[in-house]
Amino acid sequence: MKVAVYPGSFDPVTNGHLDIIERASPLFDQLIVTVAQNLEKKPLFSVNERVEMLKAVTSSISNVQIDTFEGLLVNYLKKQESKIIVKGLRAVTDFEIELQMALINKKLSGVETVFLVTSTEYSYLSSSIVKEIASLGGCVEGLVPKEVEKRLREKFGEK
Ligand code: PNS
């Protein structure tokens, strides 16, 4: 069985992430989307909230599973008996750090990183920019799934 792992902060999941999940899931038997714990010092959403949102927006994709991990990603992959990491690449600015992570993970435990290039319509999107827009009262419609829009409104209130 070919199991791939798509790791990230997902604070919160955006339409860009969802696009990667929808396009990566048919390529593998199982795709585990896993939320990194203890990474950012001040995430907007708790790990639980991020998992809930991911579950809500991927419920129709049968081979996608949502999980969390702590510590080294390669150790988590071993636990899941997976040798494949999935990542999305937006622009050249992502490339340097992603290349470094892919090479380190390969060196640490021989895992491969498969990059999917984001659809052009989401190439400018990031969780940070979504949070900034929402915190300043801007409209995030079309940038995040409806469920996430609702949660952002709950966090920041209607403006
Ligand atoms: O969504 P993000 O914040 O870009 O995700 C980054 C993440 C969580 C995938 C990355 O920081 C990670 O893999 N962290 C786990 C710690 C680790 O294994 N570090 C060494 C290899 S990069």
CATH homologous superfamily heading: HUPs
The DSSP helix count reads: 6
Describe the largest sheet: 5 strands, parallel
Across the major sheet, the strand order is 3-2-1-4-5
Structural commentary:
The chain has a single domain (3-156), classed as HUPs (Rossmann fold). Helix content is 42%, strand content 19%. The protein is built from 6 helices and 5 strands, in the order βαβαβαβαβαα. It has helices at 15-24, 47-58, 73-79, 92-109, 127-135, 146-156, and strands at 3-8, 30-36, 64-69, 84-89, 112-117. It has a 5-stranded parallel beta sheet, with helices on both faces. The chain starts with a strand and ends with a helix. 4'-phosphopantetheine is lined by residues 7-9, 36, 39, 72-73, 101, 104-105.
Helices, strands, pairings?
Elements: E1 3-8, H1 15-24, E2 30-36, H2 47-58, E3 64-69, H3 73-79, E4 84-89, H4 92-109, E5 112-117, H5 127-135, H6 146-156
Bound molecules: 4'-phosphopantetheine (PNS).
Residues 7-9, 36, 39, 72-73, 101, 104-105 line the site of 4'-phosphopantetheine.
Concise structural overview:
The protein has 159 residues and is of the alpha/beta class. The protein has helices at 15-24, 47-58, 73-79, 92-109, 127-135, 146-156, and strands at residues 3-8, 30-36, 64-69, 84-89, 112-117.
Spell out the key features of this protein:
Rossmann fold, binds 4'-phosphopantetheine, five-stranded parallel β-sheet, 42% helix, single chain, alpha/beta, 159 residues, globular
